[in-house]
Amino acid sequence: MAVASVLVSPQIQDQLGDEGLAEVTRHLWPADCQSCGKPLGSQRPSLVVDNLEVFATASLHHQRCRTPQWNQGHITGTNQPTLSFRVGGLMLPIQNDPRPMLVVNPGLESVILNRQDDQRWKVQHNSYFTKAGLVPPGRSFVVDHPIDGAVARLTTDSIAVTLQVAPFPTYECALEEHFRQEAARLKGVLLGVTHLVDPWTDPHTFTRDLDTALRSGEMLLGWVPLHGTHTPAPRTGPPGTHYVLRWTPHCGIVGPVLAQTPKTLVQRKARNWAKSMISPDEGTLMSWEPIDPKVPEAGWITMSTLSAKFFALLPHAEGWYLVQALTRGGGRDLTTDNEAKAWAGQVLQIKSGITGLEWRPGPQQPGVSTLYATP
Ligand SMILES: [Zn+2]
Q1: CA angle 19, 194, 118 (to 5 degrees)
Q2: Using CB atoms within 10 A as the burial measure, which of 147, 250, 324, 343 is most buried?
Q3: pLDDT (mean) for 264-281
Q4: CA of 37 to the centre of ligand 1 (A)
Q5: What gap in Å lies between CA 259 and CA 272, rounded to an integer?
Q6: Greater confidence, 224 or 237?
């Protein structure tokens, strides 16, 4: 069962509150100490929260290894060799038609916390699961519809699922013959990821906790195709990459977003920021020039002297985007979004082999239109 109680500091109590603490302990399991890596045993573990502003992590430790602590704003290591994960398999009944399912608890002793708009802390899954195509149960989950970001391999006595996004984790589990036959027949396996289940517990508790996680939606699901049985959709660039298309009547700029500022900056600072975000391998940068001299609000462009890549600095309401522009500009005489999309489609395909992006309109300014796409 999830950790019964933890030692907390007054600051943890103050920051998380009773509700936040309950949320955290519901998702943590007392397996190994995240300081020394040895089993936590039966003593009450210390809770340590590292608040990194964008998100926080909560982890369990021996009392003798760490005292309960709320750490503000500095990282103590994100790559945790001490973290345990557990994988289990079962046949999940779906409308009288059971599917082989691999259930993964990706981190027993440590979870990521995110502060919601209402200031409540919620446990969140690592973003590489959603980048791989996993979704919560509900309308967006389609049974038997293969995701592009993971692949499954069957051996004689096990199944292994590998995510196709960094850090490319693999989850493997020994198989019963029936499970294996069904995965082979259906050419895939259902992958379920949640911190609410211990897949190594007894079968009754396992299915009960899994049922709770499925009903509450605190789980991510995806149908993972067996290796070689599924051709991913048209290549739309690395998952999670955002693309920007900005056009004026005289010029278009399109490409992947490399970085964005968290706040508005004056132009000079924005340029310094952009320079710091571009790899020194690109060599020196030429001087920044307006993308469209007739429409200064459109942004700025430069070229690297070594790789001859174009970088565009685009102002928007909340800050700046640094975009790797695939051309110096182009698409002269654009008059509608559809013309701009057609031009961008050609550039993307020719310059980087990317097809199938769906553009959605962003903010409009006089003379400047911006569209966004995420594969
Ligand atoms: Zn320890």
Answers
A1: 35
A2: 147
A3: 84
A4: 6
A5: 13
A6: 224
Task: Compute the distance from residue 153 Cα to the ligand 1 centre, in Å.
Answer: 36
Q: How remote is the CA of residue 126 from the centroid of ligand 1, in Å?
A: 24
Judged on CB neighbours under 10 Å (0-12, 13-18, 19+), 314 is buried
Supply the pLDDT for residue 342. Answer: 87
Tell me the CA–centroid distance for residue 61 and ligand 1, in Å. Answer: 6
How many Å lie between the centroid of ligand 1 and the Cα of residue 105?
A: 21
- Residues 6 or more apart whose Cβ sits within 8 Å of residue 355: 234, 235, 236, 345, 348, 349
The domain locations on the chain are 1-80, 85-232, 243-373
Place of tokens 């019963």: 176
Element (H, E) at 258: strand 251-260
Dist. CA 35 → ligand 1 center (Å): 5
Q: Is the dihedral of CA 25, 27, 31, 35 positive or negative?
A: negative
Q: Is the pLDDT of residue 43 over 70?
A: yes
Residues 46-84: pLDDT tens digits? 999 998 877 899 999 999 999 999 988 665 544 577 899
